């Protein structure tokens, strides 16, 4: 396996019985030997320690990040089993070299839509609100500030961009035009149901789930819509400390926003630049690892 100077797994290992099929920003996908992504019945999803922001994979990696994301996704997949089907087949029947950071999963035909749900106003949703008074086609009350809790959680989809390109926020109406009303309505219902269940679970553990991004696919066997990818991790969600929540200011968080803030405000790099972001300093790497671990430990009630 290939690791960086911090010991973080950053490249795809060679795994007996599995063919490497695809490298994502932070994950590596494998299919059974002799299969392809198009015809495989299952895939092996390996979470590396890479971290991405503003559609760039950053260096160096965050040690143990892949293990944290895998453990947290498993926690949520199990908790949400009564809410929606998911793609996990096994976390134990995986190659020893990637045990703890790999999941055997049903191969899905992924829906080309990022299913974003927001319970609080921040990030790109806040930018849209300030410009239009609405987010994802949902008109919101006047006077909201960064961190405001919304009257009700809203479904605000975005396009699923090719690697190296940027996702684009679109309205629910636009999503229906692209993918069909029936499918998008089902995705909206499932996304909101997942958020409501997860938000309640997190709040009981002192964490506010401000927003999250989900991905769904269609089962090649049953044709059902199935929850895939990762779920409710610090990479795909905003987790805030409930006891420090204060609308109108930056919220203390346990997620990737910490890295985004450093890049945007302290690194001297502009996200509009064509130049790749600078390397993360050791202090940011260490603090990011600590935040991810704290999120997992608060939610799971166990020590990482």
Automatic annotation (TrEMBL):
InterPro entries: SAICAR_synt/ADE2_N, SAICAR_synth, SAICAR_synthetase_CS. Keywords: ATP-binding, Ligase, Nucleotide-binding, Purine biosynthesis. GO terms for molecular function: phosphoribosylaminoimidazolesuccinocarboxamide synthase activity. It catalyses: 5-amino-1-(5-phospho-D-ribosyl)imidazole-4-carboxylate + L-aspartate + ATP = (2S)-2-[5-amino-1-(5-phospho-beta-D-ribosyl)imidazole-4-carboxamido]succinate + ADP + phosphate + 2 H(+). Pathway: Purine metabolism; IMP biosynthesis via de novo pathway; 5-amino-1-(5-phospho-D-ribosyl)imidazole-4-carboxamide from 5-amino-1-(5-phospho-D-ribosyl)imidazole-4-carboxylate: step 1/2. Gene3D superfamilies: ATP-grasp fold, B domain, Phosphorylase Kinase, domain 1. Residues 22-272 form the SAICAR synthetase/ADE2 N-terminal domain. Its EC number is 6.3.2.6. Belongs to the SAICAR synthetase family. This is Phosphoribosylaminoimidazole-succinocarboxamide synthase. The gene is purC.
């Amino acid at each position: 396996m290939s690791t960086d100077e911090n010991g973080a797994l950053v490249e795809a290992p060679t795994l007996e019985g599995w063919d490497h099929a695809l490298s994502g920003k932070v994950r590596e996908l494998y299919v059974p030997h002799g299969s392809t992504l198009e015809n495989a019945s299952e895939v092996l999803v390996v979470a590396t320690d890479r971290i991405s922001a503003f559609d760039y994979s950053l260096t160096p990696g965050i040690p143990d990040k892949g293990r944290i994301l895998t453990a947290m996704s498993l926690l949520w997949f199990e908790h949400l089993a009564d809410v929606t089907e998911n793609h996990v087949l096994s976390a134990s029947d995986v190659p020893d070299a990637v045990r703890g950071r790999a999941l055997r999963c049903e191969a899905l035909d992924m829906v080309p839509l990022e299913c974003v749900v927001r319970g609080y106003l921040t990030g790109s949703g806040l930018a849209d609100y300030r410009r239009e008074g609405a987010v994802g086609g949902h008109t919101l009350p006047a006077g909201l500030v960064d961190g405001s809790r919304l009257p009700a959680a809203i479904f605000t989809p975005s396009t699923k961009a090719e690697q190296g390109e940027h996702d684009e926020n679109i309205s629910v109406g636009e999503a229906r035009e692209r993918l069909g009303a029936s499918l998008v309505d089902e995705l909206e219902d499932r996304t909101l149901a997942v958020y409501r269940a997860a938000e309640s679970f997190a709040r009981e553990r002192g964490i506010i789930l401000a927003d999250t991004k989900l991905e769904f696919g269609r089962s090649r066997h049953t044709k059902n819509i199935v929850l895939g990818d990762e779920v409710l991790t610090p990479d795909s969600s905003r987790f805030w400390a409930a006891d420090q929540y204060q609308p109108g200011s930056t919220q203390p968080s346990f997620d990737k926003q910490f890295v985004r803030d450093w890049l945007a405000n302290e690194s001297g790099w502009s996200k509009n630049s064509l130049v790749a972001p600078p390397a993360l300093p050791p202090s940011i790497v260490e603090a990011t690892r600590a935040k991810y671990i704290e999120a997992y430990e608060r939610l799971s009630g166990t020590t990482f």
